[in-house]
Design goal:
By secondary structure, the protein is of the alpha/beta class. It is built from ten helices and 16 strands. Bound molecules: pyridoxal-5'-phosphate (PLP). The site of pyridoxal-5'-phosphate (PLP) has 16 residues, from strand 9 and helix 9.
């Protein structure tokens, strides 16, 4: 076995998908399963499909292309607007995409016409989080333009909150989105079939039954992968939080002072570190660093272990109070936050093992 090792339990992912699909179905919502947190790993995507995801979404065309290559013929959604250079690939690998620029939609349309296809577009509206999307007032006019592009079917509108600005999705925000939908429908003279209301950040409101009728789908990654909603990181009832675990190997155990010796300047990443003096403590060095994981997103499964820091290749832990003796060669296990999972999933240095 090579370490660091990301251990993936597809049964837990399938279970979580089923729980969330059922939760959404009760509120009249379709589940778009989002696998980007696991880099579109084949077994993760398959588990989402088995668990009841109605479509698979990813922000990367490369991941959607691989999903198609395994033979998945179901619906795919491209979550990040394609660059102008990638529109042909977007049409090839995604049935629909989230967009906010007319130039991009025109380019998508040209590609779709060449391929004899219709590409579905969800127009993204910014409700204040300040990542993708057009201001509310611009949506109807832009929707009118997009709907006229040959090769394009404007299927609906959508929004994304809690990603850049940390803006919490609320019932009021969803109502605003539905008002925009009505204005767009009046402009187009027809109904829109899709209103894509958000992400795992919306799961708390779904649980509290605060989702207004009319929103048709949510795009859920973290909820399925880690069993948590993503505003307060509260567990979703009935979901597992350990579908992924990271194992890393101890390469040194030494008793050392808890404060470095000498004058302190910047560390390897330009930060000036601060240290509490706790006397001489037993420390373990693990062969896992910032190239492998986000060290701040690792949660030790062994009680009594504390992560002190990390450099590119080393994770430094205080193991003085570990409940079992930590030695060179010991394998330690960690749960992961979204950020740690994302990094471990994309790192070529982290081996993956599917249970
Ligand atoms: C990543 C992403 C999602 C999924 O977000 P989670 O918080 O993992 O549920 C949904 N929509 C868009 C546009 C995304 O980029």
């Amino acid at each position: 076995m090579t370490y660091p090792l990301l251990v993936i339990d597809p049964q837990k992912i399938e279970h979580n998908t089923g729980q969330i699909a059922a939760l959404l179905a009760k509120e009249g919502l379709r589940l778009v399963g989002v696998a980007k947190g696991a880099a579109g790993h084949q077994d993760v995507v398959k588990a989402m499909i088995k668990g009841g995801a109605a479509a698979i979404g990813d922000s990367r065309i490369a991941n959607l292309a691989r999903i198609r290559q395994w033979g998945y013929r179901g619906e795919t959604v491209l979550l990040r607007a394609p660059g102008l250079t990638r529109c042909a690939d977007a049409v090839t690998y995604a049935d629909s995409s989230l967009n906010s620029e007319i130039v991009t939609v025109r380019r998508l349309g040209e590609s779709a016409v060449k391929m004899g296809q219709k590409h579905k577009v969800i127009l993204m509206v910014d409700l204040g989080d300040l990542r993708e999307g057009v201001p509310l007032g611009q949506a109807p006019g832009l929707a009118g333009e997009m709907a006229q592009v040959p090769g394009i079917h404007l299927a609906g509108i959508g929004t994304n909150l809690a990603c850049y600005g940390g803006v919490i999705p609320t019932g009021e925000a969803m109502e605003l989105l539905l008002q925009v939908k009505e204005k767009v429908e009046r402009r187009l003279g027809r109904r829109l079939e899709r209103v894509s209301g958000g992400t795992s950040a919306n799961l708390k409101m779904v649980l509290e039954q605060k989702m207004p009728p009319g929103i048709t789908e949510l795009r859920i990654g973290e909820g399925i992968l880690l069993g948590k909603e993503s505003v307060y990181r509260e567990p979703i009832p009935g979901c597992c939080d350990d579908a992924f675990l990271l194992r890393a190997e101890v390469i040194e155990v030494q008793k050392k002072p808890s404060r470095p010796t000498g004058e302190i300047g910047q560390d390897a990443f330009g930060n000036v570190p601060h240290f509490k003096d706790r006397g001489i403590r037993k420390r373990a060095l693990l062969a896992a660093g910032r190239q492998d994981v986000d060290p701040g997103g690792l949660i030790p499964l062994t009680p009594g272990i504390e992560i002190l820091g990390a450099s590119s290749d080393h994770l430094i832990c205080d193991v003085e109070e570990a409940v079992f003796p930590v030695r060179t060669g010991t394998i330690l296990e960690f749960r992961l936050t979204y950020s740690a999972l994302l990094r471990a999933s994309v790192s070529p240095y982290v081996a993956k093992k599917v249970l």
